[in-house]
Amino acid sequence: MADHSHTETIDLRVQFDTPEQQKDCSTLGMWIFLITEIMFFGGMFAAYTIYRQNYPEVFAIASTSLNAKIGAFNTCVLLFSSFTMVMAVRAGQLGKQKAIVGWLILTLIFGGAFLGVKGIEWHEKFVEHHIPGQAEFHLEGLPAGEQGHAQIFFSLYFSMTGLHALHMVVGAGMLIWLLLEARKGTYSAKYFTPIDVGGLYWHFVDIIWIFLFPLLYLIDRHLKV
Amino acid sequence: MHDESQSQHHPVDSARTYAAILATLLFLTILTTVVAYVDLGYFSTVIALAIACTKMLLVALFFMHIRHSTKLTKLVVVGGLLWLAILLLLTLTDFATRTWTGVPGR
Question: Does B22 touch chain A (CB under 8 A)?
Answer without folding.
Answer: yes
